[in-house]
Fold these 3 entries.
Entry 1:
Amino acid sequence: MPDNERSLTPTPAAVDAGLDIAAAVTSLVPWLGGPVSNVLSGFVRDRKFRRVNETLASLAEELRSFRSEASEAYVKTEVFEDLLEQTLRRVADERNEEKRGLYRDFLRGAIKSPGAPYDEQLRFLQTLESVQPDHIRILRAMLQPPDPNPGFAGSPGQTLAKRLSGIPADRLAELSRELTDMRLADLSSYNTMMTGRGAEELAGRITPYGRRFLEFLTDQ
């Protein structure tokens, strides 16, 4: 059996832990407990199981006061259960805590947007595999209002460097190229000199898909 499949084979201890997690989720969000219980039987004990546990606990806490009949009906469907399973398998394999937070945000978006097309949700999930937290920071920085007093000239890269001073210049340029490759933004003119006002207007460089993707991850 491949290592990945073997690692996701539940042991009796893991099954007991899964029941405990499902019970905890059910106590906070009763209508989410059923699908969580169904999916958890496929997950592992120890490190990977803890990743799933932490993500679900955080999701349940965020949804604790959320109420929606449409969402409650949606989470009982096979479509949501498939999406939940695929997402939690990625969570189990993800070492970066911040990236696991993005997967939690994805599940929250799926639950709060029960009418969203499944194919697009699946595309979001596939995109999320390639996305790093710094990619999201860049997209959010691009949405910041432009400086009302820009200089005479500048480039999109210079604007991003100003808004994201904590990211090294080389990495910022690389991440921007990746966003363009993923069709989340068009930063092909990253180093192109233009008017200061043009360099500051970055929101329009986020693609329609990029906007939908970012909105899906943002709590409403």
Entry 2:
Amino acid sequence: MNGFPLIEISGEPFERGVQHGEQTVDLIQFNLAGYWRLFEHDAGLDRSAASEQARRYLRPIEGYAPHLLEEMRGIAAGASVSLDDILALNCRTEILSMGTIPMREECTALFVAPGATADGHTLVAQNWDWANVLRGGAVLLRIKQPGRPTVLTLTEAGMVGKIGFNSAGVGVVTNFLRHDHRRVGVPFHLILREAINAPRLGLAVAAVYRDTRADSGNYLLAHADGEAIDFEAVPSDVGFLYPQDGLLVHTNHFVTPRLQAGDVGIVSSDHTLLRYGRATRLLRAQTGQITAETLKSIFRDHFNHPKSICRHPDPGQPEIERNATLASVIVDLTVGEMHVTAGEPCERKYHSFCIGGN
């Protein structure tokens, strides 16, 4: 795999969705097949039960971002699948978290302020670690939408958004968190897209805060001017973290003291604490001289392999339980450029994409 396909969509919400669906029909079918397997294995839900769970989030989505629900309707129409199918993809985090087996830990996220870089640029980045059976199902979406900034997001085909940035200088990277509190509310990936839609950082913050969240997640929000804030969000509460000496690192455990007691993901992970400490140490060793190349080196790190920052499938696990780094993303918010690998960064080349075109 040399890189992810770049899909350009524009116009009103339904129109954008149709373009998305039509251009990614095969990838949407691939993702649906993979998630039906994961829902059954991880959460014990067959296709019918998973779809029923997804429908529970329809009303919260409509109240939070009706334009994104309309976009999802368009994706379904363009790909000739049901709205239930597209809902299931966009609610995959919430559906999977219903399982009794440990949730799949994913992602190492970083922020570097201008004072810590060699060239005064603002960088935000992450390795996206996820189920290896979903390898190859992601796309880059360049979204041109009336009245909102242009968005460039790496997401899974059929989903409205995940990791990325916009033409107003707002960037978003993320980590999954698992807490002992869940409820029906706005799904994780809808919040990510609304944050990337924001024309200023304060409105990205509001996207996390403004409505009832369904599940836990970490939202690292940054701006090209060098500001960043990290939100560890559970349905009933939000903890926030600021960069220290121009650096911010987050993995898959809670750092906010009052939320740590409910952290049910850390117990099952033998690597989130190690990745956090390793990435922090490697970044701090280069403070003042950090570049995109520095971040590439960190994202290729294999300490504690295969459950390292650069994650590889564990041959000791059943095939369906293996996770891997499916993409590595580095965004230079100062120049509006994203560098992306399709797969583990130790084996893949970073390809560059600009917010306005390549």
Entry 3:
Amino acid sequence: MRVAIADRDPEVIAFLKGVVEHMGHRAAVFHSGMNLLTQLQRDTFDLLILSWNLPDRSCTDLLRWTADNLTVPPAIMVITTGTDAADMAKALHAGADDCLPIPENRDMLEARIAALLRRSAHRVVQPLHPQQFGRYCFDRQSESLSFDGNPIVLTSKEFALALLFFQNAQRALSRAYILDAVWHSVAGLPSRTLDMHVSRIRSKLRLRPENGYALLTLFGFGYRLERFER
């Protein structure tokens, strides 16, 4: 999973980054609220860890911006340097999912991060039994897909990419996020690889509104699978 960390204190950043990476997630570091806000307009994260005391933008402003501008906001944890209950309450009222003083216990912080990601609405458990999305049925065990019971032949990467879109329907996914999730950001991967796979998925799955789903290109950002009621 991809985690954004915004704080002005290098020691705090190093601590948080170490915890996130120890858990097996990717960490992106931002030293100001403005830098984070700019990146949120072109990238996707599963979790934001925000300092209550950012140098240029108030934490409450960032929380409100994510709620107002992101279709599916990521889980958000706010970190404070003290135990002021009033500040923690403000963060929670402004939209934070969790708020806590910087913990000295790494195990506790890992547990809170894991709990947030589990509760996050867009986190999808990967069940082994087939998953039905409208007229599409995905079977992870056999990496097979069918439409109205008719099989659709896909490569392993095409199957992984299609499942990622369906499990995150209505959510804008950045190119970086998709490449991380499906290709694990393989060095030297041609820039057109993702676009070619998306084109094949659109064609093979016949992703059109009349079939319940359409895959939209978000220019300069990535893609979003739209769901249509029939």
